[in-house]
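Dear colleague,

Thank you for sharing your sequence with our group. We've completed the structure prediction you requested, and as agreed, I am returning the results in plain text so they can be pasted directly into your records. Please verify that the sequence below matches your submission; if there's any discrepancy, let me know and we will rerun it promptly.
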Amino acid sequence: MNYSFQNPSQAVVFDYLKKAKTIAVVGLSNREETAAYRVSKLMQEAGYTIIPVNPKLAGQTILGELTYASLQEIPVHVDIVDVFRRSEFLADVARDFIETDADVFWAQLGLESQEAEEVLRQAGRHQIIMNKCIKIEYLNMTEA
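Please find the predicted structure tokens below.
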């Protein structure tokens, strides 16, 4: 893959995390062994509100929070959308993201998509992080 996304500086990444209160997690399920679940649980324990987004589990509760079918259905402002879906789905999530007033599009470690970046930038949405784990960044921030 020749595409190389450039993340914002470490200071900007930490700034996003410091300002954020609410994190919508796309692809979160109730399977405790998944990375999405473990990361979301840690972020919730750190004081963030976690909003699960998973169409197959909409209406159910994950980590004590109501699960929504899509980002557009979430009735509160979302600071960070943390995406745990394969890279080929990132552009679709980006299209959903730009229909909301969420602030930061964050694709987890190992995930990046040139198409998703283009969708976001064309919509004037420039707060994008890809191929970084929100949990690792949070832990780095708290140790800094």
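Summary note from our side: The mean pLDDT is 96.

Kind regards,
the structure core
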